[in-house]
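Dear U.,

Please find below the material for section 3 of the report. The protein was modelled together with nicotinamide-adenine-dinucleotide; I have listed the sequence and SMILES used, followed by the predicted complex structure.
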Amino acid sequence: MNRFENKTVVVTGGAGDIGAAICRRFAAEGAKVWVVDTNVEAAEELSAAIRAEGGNADFRNVNLTDAKAIGSFVTSLTEDGGQIDVLCNNAGLMRRGPLLELSPEDWSLSFKVNVDALFHMCRVVIPVMQAQGGGVIINTASQWGLHPAPGHIAYNTSKAAVVAFTENLGRDYAPDNIRVNGIAPGEVRTPMLESNLARSGRSIDDLNALVPYGRIGEPEEIAALVAFLASDEAGYLCGTVVEITGAQAVA
Ligand SMILES: NC(=O)c1ccc[n+]([C@@H]2O[C@H](COP(=O)([O-])OP(=O)(O)OC[C@H]3O[C@@H](n4cnc5c(N)ncnc54)[C@H](O)[C@@H]3O)[C@@H](O)[C@H]2O)c1
C-alpha cells in the first residue's frame, strides 16, 4: 500500500517504542515523516534507518512542554508553503502513584506532556490544515483514560483529558475537513514494559494470560491502526477514540 505518497506526516514522540513503529509505517507507505522528539540520538538513528530503507524521514528536537518551540517547528515546516497532512500526537509519559504518593511536579508534567502539548500543537497546526483544505489529527490516549487502572491517577486523568480533547476537536473542526480521532491502546509490548516486568518478577506470559485474545499488542499493530485512521479509508471516522486492547478488561 502506498496511501501516503506526497503526504507530510508529523509524529511526536516519534523516537519512542510505539512512535518509531508509526514513523516506519508511514514511511513505508510513501510519506515524508518528521520524527519529533527530545531523544535526539534515537530520533536521528531512526530517521537515518528509514532513509537507508528507501523512505523519507528527518527529525527535529522539539521539547513539547515549550509552546514557543512547537510554534517555531511548525513555522519552519510550513513557511515556504509546506503542508502538514497528518499530525500524530503520540508523545506521552507515565508518572505512577495514587494521589498521596504523587508529587505536584509529576502531576503537572503529566498534563504538560500528555495534554497541554496537544493544545499548543493543534493551535498552530489546525490553521495550516484549514489553509490547505483539510488534514488528519490522531491523538494517542490510553485504555486507562477510559477505564482507569489503580495507582496511576496522573496518567489516567491526563489520558481521559486526551479522550475529551479529541472528541471536542473532532466536532469543532470537522466542518473544515479536518478529521480528528484518537486511539486508546491497552498493554503494548515495548522494551520499557519488558524491563518493568523483569523488575516485578513477572513474565510476558503472565501478562499475555490476562488478555482474552491471548497476548498483548505489538507496536506495529498500533501503527497499523494509526495509518488506517490517517488514510482515506477512514473517511467517515471523526471525533472518536478507538480502543485497541485484544479485548482486555482493565483489572
Ligand atoms: N506502551 C504502552 O503499553 C502504551 C499503552 C497505552 C498508551 N500508550 C501511549 O502511547 C504513546 C507512546 O508510548 P510509548 O510506549 O512508545 O512511550 P515511549 O516512552 O517509548 O515514547 C515516548 C516518546 O516521547 C518522547 N517525549 C517525552 N516527553 C517529550 C517532550 N517533552 N518533548 C518531546 N518528546 C518527548 C520521549 O523521548 C519518547 O521518545 C504514549 O502517549 C503512551 O502514553 C502506550
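For the text of the report, you could mention the following: Strands lie at 8-12, 32-36, 56-60, 86-89, 135-140, 178-185, 241-244.

Regards,
Y.
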